[in-house]
Design a protein that fits this description.
The protein has 328 residues and is an alpha/beta fold. The protein has ten helices and twelve strands. The strands form two sheets. It has a seven-stranded mixed beta sheet, with helices on both faces. It has a five-stranded mixed beta sheet with strand order 6-7-10-8-9, sandwiched between helices. β1, α1 and β2 form a beta-alpha-beta unit. The two termini are 26 Å apart.
Length: 328
């Protein structure tokens, strides 16, 4: 197995991408990795962390990168030799088995859709992100498609169910539709039409509308929504998590008594924090494509990249694309 990684994509590139790649390579010596980006910058990062390039990692040089501000079509036009475009080309021609990037979401979605193509019958690929509660909730879409139709939401429910079954061993994943109320007639015309399609489809276990306030109780296994709402939901959860742990830190460091309480509860607090740690999943697949493309968070650090590679390996080992095609 060979995985291409965009070394220049993300807010913390290339240093954190290189650090995560090195750890992933050391943990998985049987997997080959093509690290794509500016060779000098990559080698400087290795020097900074006091590491040499692992034997199972090669550098594919390009000094062009896609920035977070670039237009999504840039990867197909004036930056067709960027680290992201090169990675997608390697995947397209079969030189690698999967591609991972923490770079520009729009560019990755457009580039992968045009270069890698979708599974036959799939109208739109979706970023399938795991919401990190005490039980995983697979939410799609989380940022690639701001506007959708009801039949697209139905397709995502089907491929999301297949993915949850394969990756999390859930026999009949519960599917929910993110909405502003639980009643059947709630939401826009698209939401109401989608509700009926989901309700009438015998191949999915649809349980109805889900309000955002219910998410922490994990009412479903698969949550479908448009990419605009999904991305806002995801970032709100991330922001609330950071606020909550910051507030806890202030509370436990207020005085000697609270510091003593922290010592007594340190183990439980660590377990509580791990429950909401999205980095344990690392990356999110663009479900619906006929080859594995993974999107890591733009602010990914070493642990995120290491765990994203772990997810990519599992995805490939389980032949998710082939099984999903059969499901559809």
């Amino acid at each position: 197995m060979k995985i291409a990684i965009d070394a220049m994509g993300g807010d913390n590139a290339p240093l954190e991408i290189v650090k995560g790649t090195v750890v992933a390579a050391e943990n998985n010596p049987e997997v080959k990795i093509a690290l794509i980006g500016n060779k000098k910058a990559i080698l400087n990062s290795l020097t900074e962390i006091g590491k040499t390039l692992p034997e199972n990692v090669e550098i594919v040089h390009t000094d062009i990168e896609v920035t977070m501000e670039d237009d999504p079509m840039v990867v197909m036009k004036e930056k067709s030799d960027s680290s992201m475009a090169v990675g997608l080309k390697l995947l397209k021609d079969g030189s690698v088995d999967a591609f991972l990037s923490a770079g520009n979401t729009g560019a990755l979605h457009v580039g992968s859709t045009l270069m890698i193509r979708k599974i036959k019958g799939v109208r739109r690929s979706a970023i399938a992100t795991v919401l990190p509660f005490h039980k995983p909730i697979l939410m799609l879409d989380s940022g690639a498609n701001p506007e959708v139709t009801e039949d697209i939401l139905l397709q995502w429910a089907i491929i999301g169910s297949a993915y949850s079954h394969l990756m999390f061993d859930i026999e009949k994943p519960r599917v929910g539709l993110l909405n502003n109320g639980t009643e059947e007639r709630k939401g826009t015309a698209v939401h109401q039409a989608a509700y009926q399609l989901l309700k009438d489809n015998e191949h999915i276990n649809f349980i109805g509308n889900i309000e955002s306030k219910q998410l922490t109780s994990c009412p479903c296994d698969v949550l479908v929504t448009d990419g605009f709402t999904g991305n806002i939901t995801l970032k709100l959860i991330e922001g609330l998590g950071m606020f909550m742990f910051s507030s806890l830190k202030d509370m436990f460091t207020a005085n000697l008594i609270t510091k003593a309480a922290f010592v007594c509860m340190k183990k439980q607090l660590k377990q509580f924090k791990r429950m909401f740690d999205a980095s344990k999943y690392g990356g999110a697949p663009l479900l619906g494509l006929n080859k594995p493309v993974f999107k890591a968070h733009g602010s990914s650090k070493e642990r995120d990249i290491k765990n994203a590679v772990k997810q990519v390996i599992k995805y490939c080992d389980l032949n998710v694309v082939e099984k999903m095609s059969t499901n559809l």
